Amino acid sequence: MVAMVAICGGLRRKKLTHLVTAAVMLWRRGCSRYKQVSSKEDLPIPMENPYKEPLKKCILCGKLIDYKNVQLLSQFVPPFTGCIYGRHITGLCGKKRKEITKTIKRAQIMGFMPVTYKNPAYVKDPIVCNVRYRE
Amino acid sequence: MPCYKLALILKAMWQPKTAAALKHKIEALMDRGAIMRDLENLSERALPCKISTHNQWHNRGEYLLVDFYAPTITVESMMKHLSPNVDVIRPNIVKHTLTQELKECEGTVPIPLEKKFYYTKKRKK
């Protein structure tokens, strides 16, 4: 102990702190309080989440969209404008939204669906999108 | 040979005239090497808007759907044949929908939060 003190007196402060920490580590390893876990039986097994829920489906998931089906296409168009509702209103997934947009454009160009307004026969259809019309 | 569908809108005429016009069109198709598959008549009804073709305004039209198998070259030549025709309001040849497979839709894939808030594409400076 005395020899250690003498050595420490001769060294500079930084090296002194290094020596002190090294000594403390050695002392800790010697103690029986900290045990190394050798066996891995208690560790969790890596696996997929068993409580995973199936992905939510949009209203048109798995359904065929046709350009002749003007009633279905008109449900995604407001009654007085020709614009097509956005994703935040319809709630469709990316694929189906793109399909619907392309099909609506196709039906309009081919002469099946009106462009600037919604067919008056389909105005009273049940509302599928997240809109509220003025009564 | 791929399967096509001709969505034909004919002028509203007397029935025998429409029949004769349709026969003429189908004969033209068969001359170009097409094989008929199906013929549907969605009745004569009001058009979605007033359409003007060949210096005439049309309010009503006869909707017809013709399914056929044809070589790929026929499509262009058929469109060229149908467009100057006075009886035809709007001709359109499309690929048949039933031949295209319906892809299985698993559901709405949730977008990760990073993509919602951070702009990933490089902006041109």
UniProtKB/TrEMBL annotation, chain A:
Signal peptide: none annotated. One of its GO terms (cellular component) is mitochondrial small ribosomal subunit. The keyword GTP-binding does not apply. Keywords: Mitochondrion, Ribonucleoprotein, Ribosomal protein, Transit peptide. It is found in: Mitochondrion. GO terms for molecular function: small ribosomal subunit rRNA binding; structural constituent of ribosome. GO terms for biological process: mitochondrial translation. Pfam families: Ribosomal_S18. Belongs to the bacterial ribosomal protein bS18 family. This is Small ribosomal subunit protein bS18m. It comes from Cebus imitator. The lineage of its organism: Eukaryota, Metazoa, Chordata, Craniata, Vertebrata.
